[in-house]
Task: structure prediction
Amino acid sequence: MREEDLEIEVVEIKKNLGREITKLFDKIILPKTKGVESPKIMLLNGSGPTKKFAKKIPKKVSKYSFTEPQEIKEADSETCTKLLELAQKENIVALLSVGGGKVLDVGKFVGSYHKKSVIVCPTSTTHDGICSSRAVIRKNGEYHRSINVNPPRAVILHWPWPESCTKTHPEYILSGLGDLSDKPNACADWLLTKVMQERGEDVKEETNFNKTKSKKSVDAFKEILDILKKKEEKGEAITPVELVKPVMHSLITCGKQMSSLEPPSARPASGPGHLISHALDKILPQPRLHGYQVGIGALISYYIREKYLDLDEKLYGKKPYGIGFEEVARAFKYARIPKHWKELGIDDGDMINAIVEAPEIGKDRWFNLFEYLKEDHKPKINIDGIFANEILSGIEERYKEMYFI
Ligand SMILES: [Zn+2]
Result:
């Protein structure tokens, strides 16, 4: 699907919430309802501060009716089954998901299954799944990575951001930036596949490298790096609230790049930092925020690239798209995003295991940095405990040089 064909409306609402939402519903829902009076919309919300905000909507949008707000505590198969039954019973025409990742994922899943449009109103920037065509749904309590769904039809961005979210959970904003930091890594791995194919190697790849989409995905992160750099040069501090808008727009851009590929693919967004984060999800009894874990994984990947990659600079470069370990670590320090695994309460042992397990997680997906080191690097590198320990010590050394620790 080309991006132009992918109709994801992004509506920014600053005032007149009711009028603006009604206008959006009239545009995308009304044409499909064929004269149904007061078409019914399924309203989903989270259990945190977003609940209050979601409750306001039915009172302000009188032309449409709503189901009782459904509070989503878990994105699991049980919740989805219950909602699918309700959707059938109430004869809904669309879904409105207000909340964080779990609420949006459940909405996308139910909407895809029930063939109804989904409109999302994200209240957290913890990850880039806002308008992606993937949803993480757990089955019987098991770890379940992600499944294919239809992307949402529209995204509502409500400004100012519900104040309660920014005040009580600044990490919900900052971790989105951690997630974005893996984009240059992701696109560099995608380009690596192309380089290997041009060398005549038989590497697996579901989606051919797309220069435009990789650029948009990398630029989404670069724009934020520039904002942080300018502020830092002026000696000004940055607050998470100032980052909400740029991080949200960047996450949406990345989601659109994933959804507009044919077939839809996480290739421009999910790099080696994501593999390390997925490994941590399995290792830690209580995984940390996705974006924070990805941020640490991305830093490790940048470090590995700079230290071990031996490819032609013109083709690939040690710093993909001019972004490397130091640039990202400095941005994290300035924006107060955890840059050391210990800041997340993760010990060396778990981190070493995550690095060792990351290549296994990526094995069935596509060619990546770890596979390159294992198979094509000369001499081949074993990604074992010794290697992982060397990486962590090397990163600590770099931080000492940078006066970070
Ligand atoms: Zn992510």
Observations:
- The CA atoms of residues 226 and 331 lie 9 Å apart.
